[in-house]
Amino acid sequence: MRILPWCFALLCAQLQAGILISASDAARREQLACQPTTILGVLECEQVALPAPAPGNAPEIKPAEYVPNAGPEIPAQQVELPMLPVIDAIPARVKAGKLVLAWDIWFGTAGQWWEVWDQEQLRYRGRDFTRRIKAASPDTPAELLVDGGLQAVQSGVFTMNKLPAGEHQFVIKLCNGTLEAPVCNEARISTWADATQDEAEQEQGVPDAPSLAWIPQVTTEGKVTVAWNLWWGKTGQYWEVLNGKKVVYRTDKFTEQTDQSQSGQVEIPLVNGPHELSVRLCRRNACTSSERLKVDAMLGPDLTPAKPSLALYTPDDPDLGEGLLPSQILLSWKTELPGIAPDRWLLIDQATREVLYSQPLKADCGNGVWCGSWQGVPVTRPASWRVKLCQAKKCTDSDVIEVPSLAEQ
Fold first, then answer.
1. Is residue 2 over pLDDT 60?
2. Which residues have C-beta within 8 Å of that of residue 345, sequence separation ≥ 6?
3. At a CB cut-off of 8 Å and minimum separation 6, what does 318 contact?
4. Which tens digits make up the pLDDT trace of 238-248?
5. C-alpha angle with apex 269: 263 to 272, nearest 5 degrees?
6. Transmembrane region positions (predicted)?
7. Is the backbone of residue 148 left (phi > 0), alpha (psi -120 to 50) or beta?
8. Per the CB 3.0–4.6 Å rule, which of 5, 142, 262, 292 could disulfide with 278?
9. Is pLDDT of 287 > 60?
10. Cα–Cα distance between 16 and 7 in angstroms, integer?
């Protein structure tokens, strides 16, 4: 019984401080500031006044009237291939430093953006277009002149303030479409930048010889990995892979590089037959070659389609009956030996080397035999014809067959 007076006194004290309500009831109400009490599930809450309304605009302020844009509009997205940009000529050799690349198109479809690439690295992408004016010939009609010259449909100018020494293969791309699906036309130009005097003093000398990693003497995969190292010595600026005396790969990218060591690696495709591979490490025009390693690419026999045999029919042949008009002929062909499947056949005039007819091949005529025919009126008679069966670039020719003149028919 002594507990009851104590609880009653506590409730009185709480009532004097604020409103005592259950936690669930407080959650349903608004504008309350609550704190927990010593009684589980009961909160002490006070009513909080509503905040003052936010200041608004003066009633005399009116929104501006909407006026449609009467100026240049954003062009619709283009998906048509732009014209090929014509790049201003640059010297084959320049001094390292500032270089200006400029281009124009004089007619046709313009681009929505353009890019500059150097050694497969993106240097610029944007929409900074101009319309340059160049001198016109004296006989140019006056209505085509702008400020005394011809104005390009679209132009672009890109300045490299510090062109590094070495080789530069520039690509200028003029593009439509989107970045995800660009439609670009590209032009290329190259130059060699000579080092400045300070750079030349630092870069003079010949690189040390690179060491080739192991290469198998025989490969059946049609490719081989060429890897090399310069463990310690004078490094190079770029490197090349040679197959015999022919450069088949060149880059200034290294797998690993320090002040005194370098390494590189690339996969080189090989055709059937023997090869002699080496690596050349270069600094400016001074190069040092590695040893040469021989490898034989044994890719199996160089298969081609089977040789076609030909037959020629004229209206006088009894086997055809009345199937041909008086001036028509029928040429048919078929394969009699095994070979790879051809993907097209061509009818060729032996004298002029002209392709008279070409047709893709989708399926054989049964049991692995390929066949085809041509029926029509020859343009010239007499004539010598042959049939060529091809699979990609691998082709086989038939024997030559003679097309008789109308008098001989």
1. no
2. 308, 333, 358, 359, 361, 372, 387, 388, 389, 390
3. none
4. 999 999 989 98
5. 135
6. none
7. left
8. 292
9. yes
10. 14
The H or E element that residue 198 is part of is helix 197-203
Where is 201: in which H helix or E strand? helix 197-203
Q: 308-403: same fold as 86-199?
A: yes
Q: Return the domain boundaries, the chain.
A: 86-199, 211-297, 308-403
d(CA 83, CA 103): 12
Of 244, 357, 218, nearest in space to 296 by CA: 218
Handedness of CA 135, 138, 142, 148 (dihedral sign): positive
We find that the CATH architecture of domain 86-199 is Sandwich (2.60)
What pLDDT is recorded for position 346? 94
> What is the chain's length?
409
Q: What is the CATH number of domain 308-403?
A: 2.60.40.10
Name the token pair of 161: 């303030």
**pTM for the full predicted model:** 0.36
| CATH homologous superfamily for the domain 211-297 | Immunoglobulins (2.60.40.10)
CA–CA dist 247, 333 (Å, integer):
44
Residue whose pair of structure tokens reads 């409730």 in the numeric block: 11
CA distance 280 to 30: 82
Residues 43-48: contacts with CB under 8 Å, at least 24 apart:
44/14, 44/17, 44/18, 44/19, 44/20, 45/18, 45/19, 45/20, 45/21, 46/18, 46/19, 47/19
Nearest of 304, 331, 307 to residue 317 by alpha carbon = 331
Q: Would you call 251 helix, strand, or coil by DSSP?
A: strand
Question: Which residues, in sequence order, are bridge partners of residue 333?
Answer: 310, 372
Which pLDDT belongs to residue 162?
80
| Residue 394 in tokens | 């691998």
Measured between alpha carbons, how far is 255 from 229 in angstroms, rounded to an integer? 9
CA 53 to chain centroid? 60
CA distances from 300 to 297, 303, 339, 393 (A): 9, 8, 14, 17
